[in-house]
Amino acid sequence: MRPILLGIFAAFFFAFTFVLNQSMELSGGSWIWSASLRYIFMVPFLMAIVAARRNLKPVIQSIKQNPFPWFLWSFVGFVLFYAPLTYAAAFSPGWLIAGTWQITIISGALLSPLFYERRMTIEGLVTVRAKIPFKGLGMSVIILAGILLMQLEHARHLPFKMVLLGVIPVLIASFAYPLGNRKMMEVTNGDLDAYQRVLGMTLASLPFWVLLALYGLLTVGPPTMNQSFQSLLVAITSGVIATVLFFKATDLVRGNMQKLAAVEATQAMEVLFALAGEFFILSLPLPNSLSWIGIILVMLGMALHSLSTIRKKEGQIKISA
Length: 321
Hints:
It holds the Pfam family EmrE. By secondary structure, the protein is mainly α. Helix content is 79%, strand content 4%.
């Protein structure tokens, strides 16, 4: 149950991304600065946290020992995740991006065959190629159906081009984030904690963010103070707090694809939190009756995921006893 709770708390802080990115877009800020400033601002906070825990040296050593995997999967997990997400904010409202982003629930499950997990057999503990967790995937479809209902009424009034430019980048991000996260768990193999792993991936992806910032400086000019401040808020809430919480949750279930799918499904809560944030901060209207049905389906899917995880854990305890 602890990984599920950590995932829900992570979803709460991740929701700040959609609300604040939409706020920056409405105020005329460029997606280039929304993306690059978040990760640039994350570095000093993460460095301070890891250094205070006296865990900085292992991060640097790990990157030096395996530079190519670090740079490759950090690019996939952070750059191909957040750059498309902020780009989509230029064409779609925050609620649509948050809703489309929940396809990562399905994306993460579909990526399972690319990884290996440990299973107990008659011959003992063996490592086998993971299979798509169809049981968990079925529950994820319930969550996704609820999200689609929440967004259905809004999507009817959007031009096709806006929907397309808002959806395709988010679809790319939905596969990139779980892929990069899981691959980095394989690379580090439990040797680094969540704080160290987030710092390492941020440092490994930093060259791209610096280049993107330089490109922004030459093309759209420097960011405004308002965008810089809101990017700082995103860096703290979503970049540091949410990412560390989510990585900690996935670390706790590393090697178990069904539980990992359940943790990743908690990110469906981002839609509810983003909806509340846009209502209170950006003064958007309350959802209609169809959207409330969607909210109920999301909560039902979340409950089923949690129940499945608890029952499986209880079954394992009985077997070991």
